[in-house]
Amino acid sequence: MLKVAVASENKMVCGHFGHCETFEVFDTENGKILTNKSIPNPGHRPGFLPNFLHELGVNTIISGGMGGGAVDIFNEHNIEVILGAQGSSEEAVKAYLAGALTSTSSICHEHSHHDECGE
Asked: 0.70 cut: is pTM over it?
């Protein structure tokens, strides 16, 4: 069982991890999606969301962009980070499961530079 979370807005991959509306959490097995749960973003505070998703049992996080601090915390928890994704959250997970989605390393260095995050 692999649990994949997607930082989402209206079921689409969100451009910036911390500012997403929901986390679409997919339980997957043998390359197939078993269940999909929509979890409201509990709030953006430094270091909080990576630990929140870790406690949910997430193995992989997919987002458009993300700050370096969050990436570091996910790495500490051995959670795979896939950045630079776009489009439907479910399609992004299917592409990931098929091995067709790889991270473009779109780390946002400054929250004031929105263009780095694709926003």
From this structure: yes
